[in-house]
Amino acid sequence: MAKIHPTAIVDPKAELSHDVEVGPLSIIEDDVVIGEGCKIQSHALVASGTRLGKNIFVGKGAVLGTKPQDLKFKNEKTYLEIGDNTVIREFATLNRGTDFSYKTVVGRNCCLMAYVHIAHDCVIGDNVILSNAVNMAGHVVVEDFVGVGGLTAIHQFVRIGQHCFISGCSGIAKDVPPYILAMGIPSTYGGTNHVGLSRRGFDKEVILEIKRAYRLIYKSNLIVSEAVHKIEESLKPLSEIKNIVEFVKKSERGIIRD
């Protein structure tokens, strides 16, 4: 049976798994689904339309699934979906989607530290770490295994590629291609994320080929489209190289510069 503190308010239409814990003065609204092993600390709000997977920790004062901060929103039915084993720390705020995609999504095994804000229609991949007070606008896409330093602001519709690391106190207004470091306001290219890639078991030759690709993009006299063509023509057809090429080709905001 779920362990619900007597001062918590849980709507009878909410669906809680048998072993969910809900702390003092927390509120669980209707049309909420909370999976096995979830722990909701005190003073949290889990609003209507929120879907929590298994073994999710929700810290004190966190606010999940509230209406998007979008003036175009007309109270359509939308959702917030959070994957298994994700940690959401104190006072984080996560809004649900708009009719653009009808949902905001956070993947599995993520760590969202205190005061993180994830706006409407964002898609956060698996194994993502967002440090304290990372704030993102709507429609941001963060791919798997990304780390973002504290106090970083991310512009709407920005896309951050897999295995990137973003330095703290950065301002991200352009797309950040995969496997690199980004830093500053406005954010700039800071080299490949070779330390992170090594720790995750990437082969040395793969890391070197990634470096060669980014030397063509950032350290040659070629424009981006020429650099991409050169990468396709001259580098090994590794899956990581294909990811870089595809990411850059699909970028709508343009990528960060050197």
- The CATH topology of the largest domain turns out to be UDP N-Acetylglucosamine Acyltransferase, domain 1
Specify the number of helices. Answer: 4
Summing up helix and strand content along with how strands pair, one would put the structural category as: alpha/beta
Percent of residues in helices comes to: 10-25%
Summed over residues and divided by their number, the pLDDT gives a mean of 98
If classified by CATH, what would the architecture of the largest domain be? 3 Solenoid
Number of domains: 2
Any idea what the CATH superfamily of the largest domain is called?
A: Hexapeptide repeat proteins
Q: Which residues form runs of ≥5 with pLDDT under 50?
A: none
Straight-line distance between termini: 56 Å
Record field, number of beta strands: 28
Q: What gyration radius follows from the Cα positions, in whole Å?
A: 20 Å
Largest sheet: 11 strands, mixed
